[in-house]
Amino acid sequence: MRTLILTLVLLVCAVVSLFVGVADISMALISISRIPRTVALILAGVGMSISGVIMQQMTQNKFVAPTTAGTLEAAKMGLLIFLIFIPTAGAALKMLFAFLFTFIASLIFLAIVRKIRYRNVVFVPLVGLMFGGIIGSISTFFAVRMNIVQDTNAWMMGDFSGILQGRYELIYLSLPAIIITYLYANKFTVVGMGEDFSRNLGLNYRAIMNIGLFCVSLTVSAVVITAGAIPFLGLIVPNVVSLLFGDNLKKTLPLVALSGAIFLLLCDIVGRIVIYPYEVPIGVTVSIIGAIIFLILIIRKR
User: Fold this and answer.
1) Do 84 and 251 form a contact (C-beta atoms < 8 A)?
2) The three-state (H, E, C) secondary structure of the chain, written as one string
3) What is the pLDDT of residue 172?
4) Is residue 33 part of a domain?
């Protein structure tokens, strides 16, 4: 019943998204711009929310997500290296660079987390923020030296206004990651109980962790290449769903996916109408709303 209600809400938000904007509505506009934008929003919302669930299960911490683990900053570094060495290559190769750096950074972050003895619910994401800050500082240093700061900052500003037919299809690569996550949902739950517990139940702990990192890295890379960084989405949606419906991942995963898509669509609609006829980038609206909810969640945990 909950899944059905959220599906209906998602459909309503998608229809509203098709018809909100400054330009006059026409079939050409809807097919070339509005439908690709709405599809990209839905896939990005689903993918980033699912990525947050995976990272929270792997680190056994509700406040870990791509935003608080240096994942987005690693994707930015991959894009920076791409721009420096092979700036004329296509989008697929650009995504490959972002994927590789994201995957490696995720491995390093998990290695750091395993070394932490005092795993306070807030301390681990703070370590992740510092890790991301280091990666971001290195990227900014080289961007300044190469005089491409403006280009790198533009990549990381989440914005779906430029999504057109032929420029968003890479985001479909997040679908395999979403499907894998659903199929491995129970195993991710077991992995969240710890390495010893997983091995006692006969699971290959390292293999499951690598599968999870692959899903997260692929999804984050596809979203960043398509629309830029979407902060806090993978953090707040899984936590809100967990507070409302519990922690049975197999049951709540569809709710997380639908809620993420609805939240991103609503933020995009708000960004289009709040200073109409101008548009606020979705990264700004998600950051403001996400930061408020994040603070509320921290206060509740305390």
Assistant:
1) no
2) CHHHHHHHHHHHHHHHHHHCCCCCCCHHHHHHHHHHHHHHHHHHHHHHHHHHHHHHHHHCCCCCCHHHCCHHHHHHHHHHHHHHHCCCCCHHHHHHHHHHHHHHHHHHHHHHHHHCCCCCCCHHHHHHHHHHHHHHHHHHHHHHHCCCHHHHHHHHCCCCCCCCCCCCHHHHHHHHHHHHHHHCHHHHHHHCCCHHHHHHCCCCHHHHHHHHHHHHHHHHHHHHHHHCCCCCHHHHHHHHHHHHHCCCHHHHHHHHHHHHHHHHHHHHHHHHHCCCCCCCCHHHHHHHHHHHHHHHHHHHHC
3) 84
4) no
Residue 188 resides in a domain:
yes
Instruction: Provide the token pair at 289.
Output: 């709303």
**Is 34 among the domain residues?**
no
The stretch 170-191 carries a mean pLDDT of: 80
The answer as to whether 13 is a domain residue is no
Structural domain including 276 reads 2-8+55-301
What would the pLDDT profile of 254-289 be if each residue is shown by its tens digit? 899 999 999 999 998 888 888 877 888 888 888 888
Q: Is 282 within 8 Å of 158 (Cβ atoms)?
A: yes
What is the C-alpha to C-alpha distance for residues 278 and 276, in angstroms, rounded to an integer?
Answer: 5
How much is the pTM? 0.88
Higher pLDDT among residues 283 and 23, named by residue:
283
- Alpha-carbon distance of 274 to 259, in angstroms, equals 22
Q: What is the pLDDT of residue 156?
A: 67
Domain tally for the chain? 1
Tell me the CATH number at 192: 1.10.3470.10
The type of residue at 283 is G
195-246 tens-digit pLDDT: 777 778 778 888 888 888 888 888 888 888 888 788 888 888 988 888 888 8
